[in-house]
Amino acid sequence: MKRKLIAAIGATAMMASVAACGSGDSNASKDPKERNETLTVWLMVDAQSTWPELVKDVNAQFKAKYPKTKVNVQYQQWGDKAKKLDAALAGDKYPDVVELGNTETMTYILNGALGEIDPKKYENSDTWIKGLKDTCSFEGKQYCVPYYAGARVALYNKDMFKAGTGSDKLPETEADLTKALDKVGKKYGKDKAFSPLYLPGRYWYAAMSYVAAYGGQIAKYDEGTKEWKSSLSTPEAQKGIKHFTDLVDTYNNGDKTKDEQDHANVMANEKTALLYGNGWEAGSVIDPKANGNAKLKDKIGVAGMPGPDGKALPSFIGGSDLATISKSKVQDLGEEWISMFTSAKSQEVLASKNILPNNTKQLAPLKAKPETAPIANAVPDAWFTPIAPGWTAIEKKEILEVMLLDIIKGKSVEEATKAADAEIDKLINEES
User: What is the SS3 assignment for 301?
Assistant: First the structure.
């Protein structure tokens, strides 16, 4: 999408937001106790299963101020939420508040679906985690509110490391880690399907973490041309990609052409000693309901993943954001509900469950808490995908996965990254 079209969409979004606010102006001036309306909130099922008391408490707070207004919370599944939301937005039965994964927000910002918000209305907005705040920002305006954060860490089998190295602690540097992996591999090498480190070849989140470790980026924004340009063939990015594929070749004895979707099951089946994954996947490894292995309870450790040059490996920052729908007739109520749901008090509830809060102030104590320290410490230096109009299309076309697979199959890093740059440049500035 060219800059002119971006501006046009931005204007459309602004008009939609103004129209929505305008339609609710008369209601907004009413006594809160006289607001007889319904606020529909779409939250992901995580809130229903892990912090339902927070939803209940916030709805009670809201009810105390707006006794005649009904809050209708509808829980969604990640697998089909986007499809359902797109269909709802095309009709006249849409939510007023929606939870979005932080890689989803830009698509909805650019198509004008989200209402503009004023950060000053939200507690701790001055210390929102940058990687989350940026996913809600476009051309100096804010369109959603950070909800919670997530990061990738090392998940390891403590017993296997103890058997192979004499210690059940994960080494703190990559140099020491590779020495330990060599020993673990020797200990369990009779099983040809065993991988000391199971790092799937198409795992682009991991590959781009190594790119970030060398100072590279997937793409860069040019302030002069006002466009994005892919930068995978820069020396820094190529070093990171080669580092990643070398680790895959050396330590993954499984199917190198797979992605990371089932790597927790690989660990559950005791076919690896180490993964690089989301912190919550440690639970999946031992949960029978997720095809996990209950026998591994208390045997799976979580630690920061060592990266090149003695530093921690930069993590992709995941998480969720909350937004109002621009054409909602109760957008002001949506903003207030989000404000209550993301208040410091509410974020404390998340922190008590080892979920990373949306701000650095409340994140700080979790850096010293054993259960959360590896993930919390990975957040400040985390990286994010380009906040570009065409990023969704790039992900759908699996350009990064294809590039990595080509390298695993023998194509040179130079040739593969140059081809990926060309493909990305065709899409990155276009509306998804």
Answer: strand
Instruction: Map residue 137 onto helix, strand or coil.
Output: strand
Instruction: Collect all residues with Cβ–Cβ distance below 8 Å to 384 and sequence separation of at least 6.
Output: 102, 131, 134, 135, 316, 317
Contact 252, 200 (CB under 8 A): yes
**Which spans in 41-80 are helix H?**
45-50, 52-65
Please, where in the chain does CATH 3.40.190.10 lie?
3-150+317-378, 152-315+389-427
Give the pair of three-digit tokens for residue 377: 């410490």
Q: Tell me whether residue 68 is exposed, middle or buried, using C-beta atoms within 10 angstroms of its C-beta: 0 to 12, 13 to 18, 19 or more.
A: exposed
CATH number of 3-150+317-378: 3.40.190.10
Is the Cβ–Cβ distance between 272 and 199 less than 8 Å? no
- How far apart are the C-alpha atoms of 256 and 252, rounded to whole Å? 7
User: Residue 432: which of 168, 107, 202 has the closest Cα?
Assistant: 107
CB 274 within 8 A of CB 155: yes
Nearest to 275 by CA among 284, 264, 287: 264
- Supply angle C-alpha 344, 77, 321, rounded to 5: 30
Nearest in space to 274 (alpha carbons), one of 405, 164, 406, 151: 164
Tokens 């682009």, residue located: 204
> Which CATH fold topology does 152-315+389-427 show?
D-Maltodextrin-Binding Protein; domain 2 (3.40.190)
In 10 A of CB 137, how many CB atoms?
18
Termini Cα distance of the chain: 8
Size of the chain, expressed as the number of residues it contains = 432
State the helix-helix crossing angle for 158-165 and 174-188, rounded to 10 degrees.
90
* Coil, strand or helix at 305: coil
Per-residue pLDDT of the chain (432 residues; tens, 9 = 90+): 333 333 333 333 333 433 334 334 457 667 888 899 999 999 999 899 889 999 999 999 999 999 999 999 999 998 789 899 999 999 999 999 999 998 889 889 988 999 999 999 999 999 999 888 988 998 899 999 999 998 899 999 999 999 999 999 999 999 999 999 999 999 999 999 999 999 999 999 999 999 999 999 999 999 999 999 999 999 999 999 999 999 999 999 999 999 998 999 999 999 999 999 988 788 889 989 888 999 999 999 999 999 999 999 999 988 999 999 999 999 999 999 999 999 999 999 999 888 899 999 999 999 998 888 988 988 877 898 998 888 888 988 999 999 999 999 999 999 999 999 999 999 999 875
